[in-house]
Structure formats: C-alpha cells, structure tokens
Amino acid sequence: MKRVKWLIPVCFTLLGAGVQASDDLTYDQREETLQFIDEMVAKHQFDKAELSLLFSKAEKKQKIIEAISHPAERVLEWKDYRKIFLTDSRIAGGVEFYRTHQKALQAAEERFGVPAEIITAVIGVETLYGEHKGRYRVVDALSTLAFDYPPRGKFFRSELEQFLLLAREQGFDPLSLNGSYAGAMGFGQFISSSYRRFAIDFDGDNKADLLESRQDAIGSIANYLAKHGWTRGTDIVVRAQVEESNDAIKLPKTLKLNSDVGLIRKSGVSFQSSAQERDKARLLKLEGAKGREYWVALNNFYSITRYNHSDLYAMAVYQLGQAIRQAVEVESPPAEEAEVSS
Known about the structure:
Blueprint (H helix, E strand, L loop, with lengths): L1 H23 L6 H14 L3 H10 L4 H8 L2 H4 L2 H8 L2 H13 L1 H11 L3 H12 L8 E2 H11 L4 H18 L7 E2 L12 H7 L15 H14 L9 E5 L17 E2 H6 L3 E2 L8 E9 L2 E7 L1 H7 L5 H21 L3 H7 L1
Antiparallel strand pairs: 1-2, 3-5, 3-7, 4-6, 6-7
Helix pairs in contact: 2-3, 6-16, 7-9, 7-16, 8-9, 8-13, 9-13, 9-16, 10-11, 11-12, 15-16
C-alpha cells in the first residue's frame, strides 16, 4: 500500500511536469511546428535552420485567440456596428483619401468597374485609410492560430505557409511585418493567400506592395472584388419594405444569393432596383437604430462579403462609400453646375 501511495503522486507529478514542459516549449521545439518545418523544406525548399530560427522567435499571443473568438461582426447588431464606421471623422478621412488618390481610384474604376468610393470605403473600414494597419507581428498571429487555435488551425496553417512564401517572394523580413490578429496586412488588410493571388502592381514600380503603396492597394482591392464577381454599373444593395405579418418571407442563414429579384418581389417585398427579375438576390434583415431594416442584397454586395464574410461589414463598406461619394459631390458639383454657379 505504501508503494501505491507513493506511485500515485509521482505519476501526477510527472504528468503535471509534462504538461508544464509542453506549455513552456517555444514553437521551434513543438512537434507540430517541427512537422510543419519539414513540410516547408520538402515542398518549397526552405532552409530548415532558418525556419527553426524564425519559429524560435515567434510568440504565442493569448490576446489573438481572444480576439478571433469574439469578432465584432458576430457580437454586435447593425445599429452598434454602424456607429464604429459611419462617423464624421471617417467620412472626412475618406473624402481626403479620395481627393489625394483620385487619379489612381478613377484608373481602378475604369479598369475593374469597382466604384472609387467603394475602394476608398474598404480601406477606410479596414485600416482608417492606413492609420491602423495592425499591431501584431504577422508571424506571431499566424503561429498562434495555426498551432494553438484548433477551430481554425488547418486554415491558418495554410496561411502560415502562404506567408512564408510571400515573404520569400517579396524579400520581406517575416519578423518585421505587422498586421491584424488574423495576420492580415497593409492598407487593405490582405491575408497572405489573397496577397499572393490578387495583389497587383498599380503604381508602375514592378512590385505589388500592399504595405506601403496606396496605389497598389487601390488597384489590388479593385482586382480582388472584380475577381470575386463584381459587375460594373449595377446596384449593390437596396432598401426594402416588408410587412412584418408576411408569412412568405424567408430569411436565409447564408451569405449566398439564394433567390432572385423576381421571386423576392413575388413574396411581397417592395423595393426599387435596376436589377433584372432573374438576377440573383437575397433578402436580409438588420437591427437598425430605429428598428428592423430590410434590404435586398445583390451580386456586388455578395462580392464585398467575399472580402469579409459578414453582412455588417459589407453594409458598412456600402454606406461609408455612399457617404464619401455624397460628400465629394457636395464639395465638387458636376462641371455643368459649377459653370452655372460661377
């Protein structure tokens, strides 16, 4: 009996020591990271010693796990989310950005069909026009999420792979790059895979630099939306009128356009749009400051949700863009009006 009593605490002590040791290991010492390094060496011919050194300096950030577990898009209603992005200062900042980079914005609109104010609004929502491009080292964010956040570990392991490839291709020091808690970078907050697929050189220096070049960011955002189905000159989203007692109304739980304009109208929803009856559409409901708001989302709205998978995000981009455009038009009336008033 004495031997059993002695063995039990020893077993627990050893188990506890093992857990503690695992918690204290740096990323370059952990089994899953070592496996990842081996894969990068075999698949992409990275130098094993260099990757080991890199991961010895990567740090787990608990705040990143907390942030990604409770994003604003999941916990806020539209009335509260809107207050963050539809502010006088953000609209004014958008007008200034628009005016400063009008040539690049108009060039992007002509080439890709995405309105200048929407491109501006994406940058405004993402980084306040470049003022807040992220405070976490990207290598810390992606390592934390790849190896310490099981719900999305597979995705972020892939993003970590893309990040290392991106750093090598662009000549970036992977330890010096900062971004969001999800590892998104630059003016438009592109994740690494999107950077590699959709970033373009739009300022003519033969390098797609989304970290410092506003012109490249403008062109790349327009390119991203165009590649995700943006249709030139069509509505994005329109306000709708719905009778609350209408039993035919069905609100989908997906961001996909699950219906079409004609079917939504036939269900008793009233709205004005230039969209064709067979154009794909989706009815959505938001909780606004004055109560429920119904909207009909069209193809271009869906394209914005490919940038960030959230109705709130897409609506913030749309409404901020509208506010910026209106402010620009007020400050600079069309040429004919200017001639009449002069």
